[in-house]
Amino acid sequence: TDPWPWLPEGDGAEWCRDEGRSDSCSLKISKDTTVPTEWVMNRESEGAWTQRWTASTSFRVTAYIKTDVVAGRGAFLAVRWGVYNYPERYPYICSEKLTGTHDWTRVSVEIHGPPPPDISAVHLIFRQDGPGTSWLDDLDVEVV
Questions:
Q1: Torsion of CA 65, 19, 59, 6, to 10 degrees
Q2: Positive or negative, the Cα torsion across 82, 31, 4, 97?
Q3: Cβ distance 40 to 124 under 8 Å?
Q4: Mind listing the pLDDT tens digit for each residue in 34-53?
Q5: How far apart are CA 86 and CA 95, in angstroms?
Q6: Number of CB atoms found within 10 A of residue 58's CB
Q7: Which are the contacts of 117, defined by CB distance < 8 A and separation ≥ 6?
Q8: What letter does residue 52 receive in the DSSP assignment?
Q9: How far is CA 103 from CA 13, 56, 68, 85, 95, in A?
Q10: I need a surface site. Which of 26, 28, 92, 107 has the fewest CB within 10 A?
Q11: What's the mean pLDDT in 92-113?
C-alpha cells in the first residue's frame, strides 16, 4: 500500500518500505536542511483517519516516532483545526518534540471540541523541524 491520504510537504518526505515499528512501512522524513517538512492528513471519514466528527467530538491521537540525529526543534506529531482554503489559520497542538536519536517512542496529542465555528476539518501532522531522519508508524485515533 501507499501512504494516501497522507500528503508530503517539503523536502525529504518519503514512504519508507524498509523501516517500521510493527511492519516494514512508515512515513519518513530525511533531510539536511532546517526548513520544516511535513506529512499532513486532512481527510476524514471512510478511507481516512476517523469517522466523521461532530462539534462535540474530541480526539486523542497516538503514534510512534523514531529519530536519527534530529536537530533543531525536532520531530513531532500534531493536530490542528482546519478551515477549507485557510489550513494555517489555527495553531498546531503538538506532542513531545524528539531531538537526537531515539528508538520508537510513543507520543500523544489531544484536540478537544467544540471547535471554532468556521472549522471544516481536523488535520493530523507529522513534522520535522531541522536536519536528521525521523519515522512515524502505528497511528491510533481515539474519541475522548
A1: 120
A2: negative
A3: yes
A4: 999 999 987 665 555 556 66
A5: 23
A6: 14
A7: none
A8: P
A9: 19, 36, 8, 37, 16
A10: 92
A11: 96
Sign of CA dihedral 104, 142, 93, 37: positive
Higher pLDDT, 91 or 113: 91
**Which amino acid makes up residue 111?**
I
Q: How many residues does the chain have?
A: 144
Question: Do 38 and 127 contact (CB within 8 A), yes or no?
Answer: yes
Reading the block at residue 89, the C-alpha cell is 489559520
State how far the Cα of 109 lies from the Cα of 77, in Å rounded to an integer: 7
pLDDT tens, residue by residue, 5-37: 899 999 999 999 999 999 999 999 999 999 999
CA gap 110, 102 in Å, rounded: 22
Cell match 488535520: residue?
123
Angle at 3 between CA 29 and CA 65, to 5 degrees: 45
Query: What is the rounded distance in angstroms from the CA atom of residue 81 to the CA atom of residue 88?
Result: 9
Cell numbers at 76, concatenated = 513531532
Nearest alpha-carbon partner for 62 in 104, 1, 31: 104
